[in-house]
Amino acid sequence: MLWDFLTLASVYLFRGVSHDSINFDYPNLLHYWDYTREVGVPFWSFSQGMGQDIFPFSFGNIFRAVLLLLDRDQIAFGIAYVEFLKLLLAGWFFYLYLKSMGFSGFSGLIGSILYAFSSFMILGSTLGLFSTECVYFALLLYAFERLYGKGDGRLLPVVTALFAAFQPFALYLYGLFLVTYVFFRVGSEQGWQPRRLRQLLLQTAALSALGIGMAAVFAWGIVQAMVASPRLEYLDIFSNSLALGNLFAVKFPAINGELPAMFFSVNLTNLGGPESPLVYVGLLTLLLAPQMPVLVGRRMRSWSAALLCLWVLPLLFVNIRFLLWFGSGFYNRSVAFFFAFVLLLFAIAALDRLDKAKINLYLLLVTGVVAIALLFSLDLMVSTLQIPPALRWEIAGLLVLHTVLLAGYAQERGRGFVKAAILVLVIGEAMLCSWRTVHMKNTALAPQELTAGEFWDDDSLAAITYLKATDSTFFRLEKTYSSSPAPARRFPYTDAKAQGYYGTSSYTNFNHRYYSEFLQLTTGRKFSNWLRGPDDNQNLQAITATKYIISRAGEGGSVLRQSYDHVKDMGGVQIWRNPLTLSLGFAYNRFVPMRTFTQLPLEARPDFLLNSAVVLDDDFERWRGVEMSAEDSDVKEELRISSHRPGRIDGTVALAQPKLFFFSIPYDMGWRATDNGKEVALARVNIAFMGTLLSAGTHKLSLQYWPTYFPAGAVTSCLSLLVYIVFLVVFRNPPQPKRRVGRSD
């Protein structure tokens, strides 16, 4: 699966269904690398939108943080090695988890292979995020089993901290599953035991809270970014799904229609992608999971059925998924993975019992026949599926082989050979399916594509270098094309990060809410993850310090030629300058309340912002008594910037009379401004940005960014870590819980 990547014949970046590896993950890695080397700890970045705090997402993912230790040119090649490490860790942690439950070494080995090569893990590795969840989830299960079986909770705060620093929302989802799993584990072994459940849940909650505290420096910033993102606008839709009538409405869009195919392989259909229900955990699981109810007692069957039904509901009813995701989307992702894990757990439980109980051959035969019949009728059920005939027959053959070997398991004589054959078949299937997942769903980049003067190393990089060398002022620039090897929507959403310039567009999970609102009110375009700057409006570019445009030669169009100054041709690109562009900070003679601005026609709003600022209605009432000149002026007092870097702007301005001074920096409580050494209050101006009232005279202005959450988060993390160290010392030898009744029935 990874051989050509580990030998550096290919790069673990992909065109195809995993194009986010190129358009999201890799540009972020390059940006963090550049930032840490050139500036320091990555806080405020002008390369994401028009500016945003990026610290919470920088080092919280430990696997991505490891890549930042490499040289910049080695990051792309290091991704495959990190994903290989995750593959090993996921399998190892899952093996430890199964062994801690009392399963045999053979069952644990088979289970660990099936888990490590599940579709969620393998396809997720091409994006980086899902595979990290797989590793953490296996570790979470093992940590809980140590607490449950041995009374040892020392590992649980660590894995909770890893989840919280990675993504608090993922911690919520996996924590929700863990609660249901706690009920299943206690109920299946001891029956309904409220006291034991309460004790276990309280222990888990306390240890998890300690872990969250350890990761507070990252987690609190991520939560703030989530709350301040445009995604909150979905809450009105979310509230509609809370009604039970809507919650259980049966809706089967195309992504649900492919669900049966996903049990066989993510490669079976043309639709399979990261947002598909990734429930494949090996063909052996399909055959063994139905055996579990006939091999265990009634109590185990009842609790197992409850757990399975609970997590099959989100797969069938999209509004339940919408509810679980708090209205941010209908994603399968972790929800489908939970269901796949439950099936895998049932299958391994059945396999483990086959040494002492015989397999039900009739049920095995029926399961195999039904699976093959379903396999050959999938495209009749969903006409949009395009299943390669050869792949269909290959999967059918594997199902037959698995069925024959499981039938042979019933005979004690030769069982060692059967086990070896099952192991070989499982490994062969895992390698074959994972190779297809990586190579058939995507096209990997070749090494020379990153360094051969193409894509992000194209002529636009030389143009950016030229502008930085010849213009020392603060400026933003826009490109009319994307240099990405797999351009998303054919727009340079993340080129600013990959090529190191201050841009206006962004592609990230949580964009700046006010900036998104600004673009919606001035361009009419509504944004969430994909945020496109004011690329087609010269006046909006002017007030946001967007000074330069880079276009491909011959693609500039009449607008650039007529309205912009031609600067230079460099190879295959042209550089243009917007003659209207103002400095990062400039003065307004007048301002109006937001309610007045929103009454203007959409097409009139950009022109209006050239001469009049927009303030919040409350600020307008407070400031309306300030005496300012009512006359418009074509010449605006602009900030003369003496030094600038991300997170720090210094400059001077001389005003003949009081003015509202505007900064085209998205509003954030972390920014502090001083005027001649004295702190001044910053307010939201022009919908998304910052401004302050200045008196007549000369002003030495300084803007500095320091995240509001960082001091409290850092202190909380340090104190929590100290508590955890004390906890390790005190509980070096954790007390053993009372012996449970059996392993499971």
How are the elements arranged and paired?
Elements: H1 3-6, E1 11-16, H2 20-38, E2 44-45, E3 52-53, H3 62-67, H4 75-100, H5 105-116, H6 119-125, H7 129-150, H8 156-166, H9 168-190, H10 194-214, H11 216-227, H12 235-240, H13 244-247, H14 254-257, H15 259-262, H16 283-288, H17 292-295, H18 298-316, H19 318-324, H20 333-353, H21 361-381, H22 389-408, H23 415-440, E4 442-445, H24 459-470, E5 476-479, H25 495-499, E6 506-507, H26 513-523, E7 530-531, H27 538-543, E8 546-552, H28 557-563, E9 565-570, E10 573-577, E11 585-588, E12 591-593, H29 594-597, H30 605-611, E13 613-615, H31 617-623, E14 640-645, E15 648-655, E16 659-663, E17 671-675, E18 678-680, E19 683-685, E20 689-694, E21 697-705, H32 709-730
Parallel strand pairs: 5-8, 12-13
Antiparallel strand pairs: 1-4, 2-3, 6-7, 8-10, 9-10, 11-16, 14-15, 15-21, 16-20, 17-18, 17-21, 19-20
Helix pairs in contact: 4-5, 4-7, 5-20, 5-23, 6-7, 7-8, 8-9, 8-10, 8-11, 9-10, 9-18, 10-32, 11-32, 18-19, 18-20, 21-22, 22-23
Structural notes for this entry:
The chain has 745 residues and is α+β, with helices and mostly antiparallel strands. The chain has four domains: 59-228 and 708-745, no CATH class; 230-445, no CATH class; 455-577, no CATH class; 586-705, Maltose phosphorylase, domain 3. It has 32 helices and 21 strands. Strands 14-15-21-17-18 form a five-stranded antiparallel β-sheet, with no helix packed on it. Strands 5-8-10-9 form a four-stranded mixed β-sheet. A four-stranded antiparallel β-sheet has the order 11-16-20-19, with no helix packed on it. A hairpin with a 3-residue loop joins strand 19 (683-685) and strand 20. Helix 4 (75-100) runs parallel beside helix 7, helix 6 crosses helix 7 and helix 9 (168-190) packs antiparallel against helix 10. 47% of the residues are buried. Mean pLDDT is 89; it is low at 252-256 and 739-745.
